[in-house]
Design brief:
single chain; alpha/beta; about 290 residues; binds guanine; Rossmann fold; methionine biosynthesis; 2 domains; about 40% helix
């Protein structure tokens, strides 16, 4: 079987992070201040603990200040709204991120709506979603932005290509569609209720899997030569332990033109784009 090219998100993200760190150093030397990112984590979700830890380490490694707020699962909406108000007012905080998912008693939409849109480095506030959808300058959600960078790096101009996105979440699927539309792709958003999902995916020049189901996209869903971006990070049992797999059956995708591996594909790009958004928010405050 032919071998699909591996799209090395880890290496691309390392390059981005090095450029961001150099810029942070230059800004600190020139202005005597540095970007600050506040991350709010509520409860003990194991995957969120890992992601928040990785975000903290990357923030510090890039020379930025990291303000972590790890709160118990019982924390009330009022306490969180107060905290967000304080972070909005804090001049040392340029980016605010509330890690999702939140415990069921909390209203995530209301919390996101309370974040100052200029500090919304996740790009989840309706103001930023609306700006992105109407072609205005926006904070863009980190995971789809990272996917776009990998696609543009691998394919160059995306004009006229058919992109099929499997998954319609506010975090990935919908903003991914907006970004690819702005890049002149023909865009189809598919989801669990779509008819003939496999056949639909086979029409894709660019196939983006963002459903959160281990290896759901099979090899025969992929058109030969297509570029496949696997957003999934799923932990599955493996012998006595576990291992990470994506939403695409990687071993069946040898006929793709290129594919992102899991891990080492999209995951590192999400964090690099978070640093980039934090730097952007900081620069706008300096200007
Ligand atoms: N949970 C999964 N992905 C994300 C993300 O990009 N941002 C936040 N805040 N929570 C998430």
């Amino acid at each position: 079987m032919t071998q699909a090219q591996r799209i090395d998100g880890k290496a691309f993200a390392a390059g981005m992070t090095a450029r961001i760190a150099a810029e942070v150093t230059a800004l600190r030397d020139a202005a005597g201040v540095e970007p600050g990112l506040a991350v709010v984590l509520v409860g003990q979700d194991p995957a969120s603990q890992v992601y928040v830890g990785a975000k903290h380490r990357a923030t510090v490694a890039a020379g930025m200040r990291s303000f972590e707020h790890r709160l118990p699962a019982e924390t009330s909406q009022t306490v969180l709204l107060d905290l967000i108000g304080q972070l909005n007012a804090d001049p040392n905080v340029h980016g605010i991120l509330v890690q999702l998912p939140l415990p069921a008693h909390l209203d995530a939409s209301a919390l996101i709506a309370a974040i100052d849109p200029s500090k919304d480095v996740d790009g989840f506030h309706v103001i930023n979603a609306g700006r992105l959808a109407t072609g205005q300058d926006a904070m863009v959600p980190c995971t789809p932005l990272g996917c776009l960078f990998l696609l543009q790096d691998h394919l160059g101009d995306l004009s006229g290509l058919h992109a099929v996105i499997v998954g319609r979440s506010n975090i990935v699927g919908k903003p991914m569609a907006q970004l690819l539309l702005a890049a002149n792709c023909t865009v189809t958003i598919a989801h669990s209720k779509s008819r003939n999902l496999a056949a639909l995916c086979r029409t894709a020049d660019i196939l983006i899997a963002a459903v959160g189901r281990p290896e759901m996209v099979r090899g025969d869903w992929i058109k030969p030569g297509a570029t496949v971006i696997d957003v999934g990070i799923n932990r599955i049992p493996d012998g006595d332990g576990t291992r990470l797999v994506g939403d695409v059956a990687f071993a069946e995708a040898g006929h793709a033109g290129a594919i992102t591996p899991v891990p080492g594909g999209v995951g590192p790009m999400t964090i690099a784009c978070l640093l980039q958004n934090t730097l952007t928010a900081f620069r706008r405050k300096l200007a």
